[in-house]
Structures are given as structure tokens and as C-alpha cells.
Amino acid sequence: MRFRHPDGTIVHLAYCTNVHPAETFDGVLAQLRDHCEPVRRRLGRDRLGIGLWLARDAARTLAADPSALRTLRDELDRRGLEVVTLNGFPYQGFGADEVKYRVYEPDWTDPERLEYTTALARVLTGLLPDDVTEGSISTLPLAWRTAPGPHRALDALRLLGERLDALAELTGRSVRVGLEPEPGCVVETTGDALAPLTAVGHPRIGVCVDTCHLATSFEDPHRALDALTAAGVPVVKAQLSAALHAGQPHLPEVRRALAAFAEPRFLHQTRTLTAAGLRGTDDLDEALTGDALPDAAPWRAHFHVPLHAAPAPPLTSTLPVLRAALARLVGGPRPLTRHLEVETYTWQALPPELRPRTRDRLADGIAAELTLARDLLTDLGLKELP
């Protein structure tokens, strides 16, 4: 979906396909047929943006085989889909029964992360629509916090910048890569991103702002985005997502409601803001066990809840943080980013009674999220384009 900002800039809205796990090229083609095109049809659109997640095997196939890349581009066109952004955070196995800490492997201290991201950039230049010259890729925020050798990660990012420059010169198309701050990682907040990205100092490498992560870390959207702007760090893309919010975690009924979201597949880092600063656990079940986390103030958990459907009381979502961030991102005289992506990948990790049981129900939910995002954008003065 495309929108025109009052300053004339085209802003792209997509949804991320990591909600439809696929590891291979054939699996990606099946995603387009079984999931993405049905969402487009529900929205009544001739064209729908998707943020592709390409696992390692699919990325390798597309980077090595020009005919496969042409096939994918033709299939996108045929189904009324377009790609300007890729999710390069998960490497493989995102559809496994247990993902947890493995989602951070390989990290930016491992040469394979550089090779994977380079392959994604090459693929993206071949997928961009004919009238678009800039693509974006989100990537993990260097590494999980216990990873050794962070200097190697910065060296890899500098080399990535050189490769992106060469790719732009070769193809005439620019690809930018954004570190996605996430609780528990070396770069947990947007503030943590300032020093490493300033050290790298490359205009094609910036930040991907995920509004669920922003909220989980209790960051103020306006302060966070103002700090990035002041430091000259580009917002490469923004992922529109909402975290799980518990206003009174000391109450037994709140604990019971939260426990329904503690599940074995993904990591749900949980945070609370105290007088001494941010406190947290690596997962929601840890927070619910004993006194691991103070409960005198609200808790937020890294659980991407559907944008249009907040959890039932006594829980809610951080949709207000998303609204505030979006107003700062695209509601000013000039947009801070041109690429927006709805990223609710946890539909099948929701409590059983909330999970979509069929493809049709999942498509309905994704379409409802995109409709909400569209309405937020038009309320900010952007004009939806055909």
C-alpha cells in the first residue's frame, strides 16, 4: 500500500511475511499464493506491499539463480504484490516449535550474518518495483547481550556499508540496513544504537524502529526519535507492532491473564520501569515466577499482539505508543522514514482461544491490522494511493 505524504514523499506500508514460515524458494512462492494474495483481495486493493522474510536457503537460491529471482518477481507482479523491504532478522527456523534464543544466531560477530545480509541486499535490488529505487532490510541489533567480541560486529557493518555502496553503483538501486533494537540484546534501545552506529558512520546503515520493542523498554517515542535525528542516524524502516501491557501485575487475576501468554516458542522479554531504572527478565514465565521482577509498576512483555484487537481486561496493548511513534515518524513536515511494516508474527503463539484456526481467519486478521494502520496514516494527513 502506498501513501503520499503532504510533502510529496511516497510512504510504503507492508505486512511482514515471517508470520507465514517458509524456509525455501518454493515455500515463498506458496506464501504468495496461499496468504499474501488473499490478504490483498480482502483489502480490495490492486496492489499490496509485503515485507518478505527470506530464510537462509531461500536467500541463497535467489542470490545464486537469476531465473529464480525473475520467477519470484513475476509471481509478485502476477498476484498484485510488491516488495520494498525485507526482514533480515531471523536467519532460519523461525517456524520451529521452539525459537527462543536461536533467533539471534548467527549474530554480527559471525561472518555468516554478513554474507546472508549481503545476499538479501542483492536479491532486493531485483525485486524492487520499476518505479522504486530504494529498499530496506531490518537486521538483528548486533547480538544477544552475552555475545563476545562486539568490535567484530562493527567491522562487519563497515564492510556491509562498502558492499551496499558497490551494489548501488552497479544496479542504480540503494539498499539500506537498519539495526532493530530489542530487549536483551547488545542494542536494547534506540539510545543504545547511537554509539555503534555513529562509530560505523555509514549513511546506508541506521535503525529499524519496532514500536513493540520501543514500548517494552518504556522508551518515549518522541525522545527516542529526536535523539536519532539529532545524531544523524537514519530511520531505515519502522515496524508497527504492539506489546502486551499489564497495569497492575501484583494482582492475582493479572498474573493469571499474563500466564496465558507465556508459551514455549518465542522469547517474551518482560520489563518494568522502577525508580532505579529499567528492570527485566528474559522471558515472561521468569517474570511470573516468584519475585524475579518488581510488580509495583506496570509490566510490558515483548509479545506482538494484533494491532486491532487488544487483549481482554485486565490486560491491554501498547497501541498508544505505536500511535505516538507513528505521529513522529510520518506526521511531521517531512517523514523520518518511508518504509512501514506491520509485524505481528505471533498469531499462532496467542492463547489457544485467540488463535486463527484457518488460513481465512488469519487473512482476515492481517487485513484488519492493515486497515487500522491505513486509517492511522490517513488521520495523519497522508493520502492513500491506488
Produce a short descriptive summary.
Helices cover 40% and strands 20% of the residues.
Structure description:
The structure is a single chain. By secondary structure, this protein is an alpha/beta fold. It is 40% helix and 20% strand. It contains twelve helices and 15 strands. The protein has helices spanning 25-43, 56-64, 66-78, 111-127, 150-171, 190-200, 211-216, 221-231, 252-259, 284-288, 319-330, 359-379, and strands spanning 2-4, 10-16, 48-53, 81-87, 134-139, 174-179, 205-210, 235-240, 242-246, 270-274, 277-281, 299-305, 315-317, 339-342, 383-384. The strands form two sheets. The chain has an eight-stranded parallel beta barrel, surrounded by eight helices. Strand 4 (81-87), helix 4 (111-127) and strand 5 form a beta-alpha-beta unit. Helix 2 crosses helix 4 and helix 5 packs across helix 6 (190-200). The protein is globular and about 55 Å long. The N and C termini lie close together (8 Å). The model has no long low-confidence stretch (mean pLDDT 97).
